[in-house]
TrEMBL record:
<keyword id="KW-1133">Transmembrane helix</keyword>
<keyword id="KW-0813">Transport</keyword>
<dbReference type="Pfam" id="PF00528">
    <property type="entry name" value="BPD_transp_1"/>
</dbReference>
<feature type="transmembrane region" description="Helical">
    <location>
        <begin position="99"/>
        <end position="118"/>
    </location>
</feature>
<dbReference type="InterPro" id="IPR043429">
    <property type="entry name" value="ArtM/GltK/GlnP/TcyL/YhdX-like"/>
</dbReference>
<dbReference type="InterPro" id="IPR035906">
    <property type="entry name" value="MetI-like_sf"/>
</dbReference>
<feature type="transmembrane region" description="Helical">
    <location>
        <begin position="200"/>
        <end position="221"/>
    </location>
</feature>
<keyword id="KW-0029">Amino-acid transport</keyword>
<protein>
    <submittedName>
        <fullName>Amino acid ABC transporter permease</fullName>
    </submittedName>
</protein>
<comment type="similarity">
    <text>Belongs to the binding-protein-dependent transport system permease family. HisMQ subfamily.</text>
</comment>
<keyword id="KW-0472">Membrane</keyword>
<feature type="domain" description="ABC transmembrane type-1">
    <location>
        <begin position="20"/>
        <end position="218"/>
    </location>
</feature>
<feature type="transmembrane region" description="Helical">
    <location>
        <begin position="58"/>
        <end position="79"/>
    </location>
</feature>
<keyword id="KW-0812">Transmembrane</keyword>
<keyword id="KW-0997">Cell inner membrane</keyword>
<dbReference type="InterPro" id="IPR000515">
    <property type="entry name" value="MetI-like"/>
</dbReference>
<feature type="transmembrane region" description="Helical">
    <location>
        <begin position="20"/>
        <end position="46"/>
    </location>
</feature>
Length: 253
């Protein structure tokens, strides 16, 4: 029976860690695209756009219902066959429409997590009291000015805890991309472990890497949350009601 090998961890930690840029690249790209898409989806729901809102709700339900591993397999293995049948010519094969592993991973994560971010943004918007928007209209602020100076500062603070949780889930789910041949941290761990069947030690290295990565990002986002909260409080003192919210006049100090 093989004993736990600290020598293996020492000798292979750098090798496994060398794949971290791939994991970070997938995380960053997926975060950007899913955040932008989630913002658009949330806007449609908030504005209650006729007809389109039903499609958005269906998309969000779809994104939240499909397991991440199934979505990765669908985008990488199934999507080329569907595209080939629908759009392909006589000479085309599914391989003509197959996405690269990295692109497929980013696309799959963007679809799934845009649904979660949409709900995060929508709930943050609803957390801002309706009375503040009505007060902003009453003093003649434009829609963009309302969003920039009143709604966004409060909604951002409200959204960040949930946003952080979804981001952490995204990072953890990147450990699945090795199943579609992306050479990430998990793939490098399997390669290293196969050399001497030291899978326990290899997965301990992966555990350490993911814990450290999540803790660092959580700390960064926590500082951003505190900064925005303090900035909003400072800004809020500049815009105060002359009487109460229902008073007819707000004054700018």
């Amino acid at each position: 029976m093989a004993m736990f090998s600290f020598d293996f961890i020492r000798d292979n930690f750098t090798f496994i860690l060398s794949a971290l840029p791939v994991t970070l690249l997938i995380t960053v790209l997926s975060l950007i695209f899913s955040t932008l898409a989630g913002g658009v989806l949330a806007w449609v729901l908030i504005r209650n756009v006729p007809y389109v809102k039903y499609l958005v709700r269906a998309f969000i339900s779809f994104g939240r219902s499909v397991p991440m591993l199934v979505m990765l397999y669908f985008v990488f293995y199934v999507w080329p066959w569907i595209t080939s049948d629908l759009l392909g010519g006589p000479q085309d094969t599914p391989f003509s429409y197959k996405l690269s592993p990295l692109v497929a991973a980013v696309a799959a994560f963007s679809v799934v997590f845009s649904a979660y971010f949409a709900e995060t943004f929508r709930s943050a918007w609803n957390a801002v009291e309706k009375g503040q928007r009505e007060a902003a209209w009453s003093i003649g602020l434009t829609g963009f000015t309302q969003f920039r100076r009143i709604i966004f500062p409060q909604a951002a603070v409200s959204a960040l805890p949930n946003y952080t949780s979804v981001l952490i889930d995204l990072i953890k789910d990147t450990s699945l991309v090795y199943t579609i041949t992306v050479v990430d941290v998990m793939a490098k761990a399997n390669i290293a472990a196969a050399r001497g069947f030291h899978y326990v030690e290899a997965y301990c290295i992966v555990l350490i890497i993911y814990i450290a990565l999540c803790l660092v990002l959580t700390r960064i986002l926590r500082h951003i949350e505190v900064y925005l909260s303090n900035r909003w409080k400072s800004h809020a003192r500049k815009v105060v009601p002359s009487h109460s919210f229902w008073g007819k006049k707000y004054v700018q100090k």
